[in-house]
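A note from the maintainers: we've had questions about how concatenated examples are separated. There is no special marker in the raw files; a new sequence line simply starts the next protein. For clarity in this README we add a label.
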Amino acid sequence: MIWKNPFLIRQAEKIDTVDSFLQMFSAEALTFLNEQSFNTIQFIRSSPGAGKTTVFKAMQPNVLSALQSEIEYTKDFFNIAAKNRLIEGGEVKLLSCIISCAKNYDLIDEIYRNGRRQQLLFALLNVRIVVLMLKSILVIINKQDIDSLDTITFRDYPEECTPILDKPLNGYELYNWAQLEERKICRYLDAFSDEPIKELSLPYTTLFFAKLFEPHNILFNKKTFLHHSLIIFDDMQKLTKHQRVLLIKTLFTMRPNLGVWIGERLEALSESEIINSDATIGREYGEPINLEKYWQSKGKNNYKKILQNIADRRTKLYSDDVGKFENCLENNIDYKKYEEKLQNIIQSIKHKIEEDSSFGKKYLNLFNHIEDAYTNNYKKALAYMVLDISYKRDILNGQLFFWENSFAKEKYEEFYKEHKNVAVYYLSIRAKLPYYYGFDIVKNISSYNIEQFLAFSGVIFEQYVAKSIVRSKGKHNLRISPAEQEQCIKQTAMQKYNEILRKFKYGKNIQNLFNNLSHKFQQTRDKGTNPYAGGAATGIAITKNNLKELTKSQYKVLEKIISDCISSNYFDKRIITHSGQEWIVLYYNRWLCVYYNLPLSYGGWIRETISNLNLFLQLEESENEQNNLPIKTSV
């Protein structure tokens, strides 16, 4: 048991022990692995919080060495590792290291403007690969003293090492050399150091030391002992554009016989590359993995299984007594609290239809059927809400019915099944019932981002923890009610909305864009006719031809904003063909749907143009009001 809320520990690097990491980690996140993953150059991209760094940490020898088939929380991970020959016979067979590119390498390009900047970049990366890989070897051979590296030798040294090393070195000698070399390079870069640098040459023009750590080339007591080697470059977006392109070209030119994973946020790409899916760097070398898109391709059910695993693991880490995260949630609404509102809605719909001598006649025969079929006011209100959808459609289409009993019960029942879920949404808006509650809703709101899931589930679990502390002396229902869940979820969505101003240069423009789009989405909802999947539009579609307008100078800010929204997972980009044209559809991240009281379904989008979107960047909510365009909140 841990005392703090385990859902609030969101970044893998902040989990202090291997055992804690394994207790929180879901092996389902590694389903994209195969043996080829450790013998190729693989781009792994995502928006912040999709689980990229967590996957990288799982590949480290100290984590792999802790796997046991008998332990419940490592069993699945053990099986995946064994299948891919990362462990074998109780020994770790994958040598790996993580090179963080968030180490101010970009400053090298700011200080130097000649070939020296390339030499310094490769010099630091080479010596750090050596140091980190040798440290990982110590873990694999189960030694702690650096002296033990004298049992490590190499079959061959790359030819490029000749100008640097006088003779082949064993692991211990190489480690000491690399540490000394790194200190020399750092002193050279340190503008505040007056110490002279002696015997520092920089013949580094490539990542040749990576070749040294190919698995067949490393010997322990004169024997090979590894199946795979893997070098992970994390946060590649932190490099300058020049450094990133140089490093990628170098790696593909070298093609070392080991795995190289390039982890980067989508922001590493240019605005054009982010928006236009056909222009992705690295495509010619194999399809990059975008983690959010990968989870989507695996199917909603598989992704939900991952989230359930993560939530249950963290719940158990807090207390075994709770069992599963779902046990913290109450899924039944006490409709007695809403009796008056529900009754008013029923009477309002009935009165409206009864007073309409043209359109209303079609539905009068169903009143008695609904009154007899349902005694519960909520179910009765839901049935009338379904009826209201059909009635409003008739008015919209101008279809007049001059005969009674034209809507047969059987036909109504079919219509009810088809539109019930949307009626639940419409009724929740109109009667102010909780709508965003339950474990499935929390999963849907995550929008295929694990950190986002932890943010929403963590706030709810915090509420549960608070209740359990306050009521620990008596027997009380500790479950979080639907209303409390929705309050937590909406509070978190509001925090995310407010963060936009802090996170982005054009944060206010982004908020303006969302406010104006949401006004149009709410208009589709407020028709009450279920015109789109889920009851309202939650996305926009732009033709590929119109998208080319973004290259014009007057739309540069809009291009940047759309790019930022995609790379930050505010927009879920999809490519479709409709009416003989290619469209880019940008769906809202589901937390935006929560913020604007929109449904969580996909499929509903409205057509937009670049010129309109550009106008929305500047149009404030007050200007909407001046134009008589208030954002509605009722059906």
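[label: protein 2]
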Amino acid sequence: MDASSGLAPHPHAQHDPHHHDAGHDHHELPFWRKYIISTDHKVIGIQYGITGLIFLFFGFSLMMLMRWQLAYPGQALPVIGNWIGHVFGPGSMPDGKMTPEFYNSLGAMHGTIMIFLGIVPIAFAAFGNFVVPLQIGAPDMTFPKINMASYQAFFFGGVVMLISFFVPGGAAKGGWTSYTPLAVIADKGPTYDPIFNGQTLWLIGFILLITSSLLGAVNFIATIIQLRAKGMTWMRLPFFVWAQFVTAFLLLLAFPPLESAVVMQLMDRVAGTSFFMPSGLIINGVPLHNSGGGSPLLWQHLFWFLGHPEVYVLILPGMGIVAEIIANNTRKPLWGYKSLVFAALVLGFLSFIVWAHHMWLTGMGSVVSAFFQTTTMIISIPSVIILSAFFISLWGGSIRFNVPMLFATAFLPMFGIGGLTGIPLAFSSADLYLHDTYYVIAHFHYIVAPGTIFAVFAGIYFWFPKATGRMMNEFWGKVHFWPSLICMNMIFLPMFLQGMLGMHRRWYDGGQGWTLAGEKVWGLSGFQWNTPISIAAWVMGLAQIPFIINFFWSMKHGKKVNDNPWEATTLEWTAPSPPPHGNFATTPTVYRGPYEYSLPGRETDFTMQSEPIRESDRKAYEAAVALH
């Protein structure tokens, strides 16, 4: 049923949300009201995007520091080493040399910031907020003030995470997974404040980030169900909207168990409870006095019940972005649209019954292990369907290799490598050896770094003209793309080799002195591979500078373009660039599917969703059906 007919009985349903009373005085809003606490979905999307990009670069910078320690353990970091020690405190880098505690903080905060403050806010919240209402023909989100509150919770959660770097003892050291009992007993003692310590602030910040995601998820679901334009039936939704819809459900269902678990871990730290603390713990030779009886494994279950759907929270919006760009730049409809939609729905469902494959080493029984191995193998099927549909969509297309398309096509094999290398980890027998090695790092990062982050870059280059009315520079976009693609592979491909040697992902000294890290593969020992990996990481950091300059320079000086510079078909390209408050000059009505490219008998090779059906379209459709 269309949203329009679903809303008809409502007394305000006949009101045109785009209509403004001519006598109404539109005074200019002050800066803080327009850009700081705005309720406009487009401004909130841009807020999420720019804040997320800043956090993404900060989290990447933490990793670049870690790479120095792995490549040159125990050596002073030249030029900036002493300065970093002054910024993050005396316990971080005395004389420019990284301490094990600071290395652990960098590891924990790199993972937390990149996922929860970088990729999720950009891929889900930024693109979702800006693009989804435009693509479904809505004037705004269903709950604009909740939308504003969602961003503010995210922002303050990020601030709390950043503050944790500057409290005594530094930021959280318990890993991005915050495993108990370590995460409960860390950063405690007479030298630590009970609240203002790294691990406690990590939990408080995380509560704010989870709250932000839940508010956003409710809003997205309500908006997509209730505010679709007239004629925008479910099977006329762009695949990007479907991806955001499934992602919102994942967040809504998976985050509450983790939020309750985070509150319980916080209580274990500050109130003396033992939700996750067993009896009989001995710390530094002294028995720990607590009520006991808690289960550290319970935390793992609650964390990974979110943690695996979270992988699809990261990847589904990326897939949605890539789908839009592939259809637009092949000038043909997406192959297997309905297959894509149902695969995304199945992917969302299955992601809730695979979480224990992160826990093979916890000693689960063979029956439970067999169940989770089976579901993990099955979940690869919808992923393969989506990836195959994208590859087939390229076949026979008149492909335009502009910058968005370069990132979108690079996404396909990179995500493929990430997915295929995950299959050995699905088997508990193989995972006993590979668990917590660099193999896992490489597998996960191939999905999220050259996977989702490439999709994010593709989306930024693609929708930038809609947000600003200007195009980003094509030449500098390619200067950004090629080094990023090459360096991504130079960083993560050797990690598979390190992992198969057995090198542990959390060695502070990069494996120096460990026998298995001395074994050679492809001419270098496992430890020696750290140096070329680190150099590639630093070069990739430099490769982001053209993007940063291009992004901000193009806002004011980029080439001005019309409302539909890519000659696309979906509704957002019927709105002015940048879209005004209310989005559309006239309320759009949808007559056709989202990817009507290269229709026979048409003057152009793209037909907008809002264009009425012609008699020639009906004849061409009937002729096509007759051929099949």
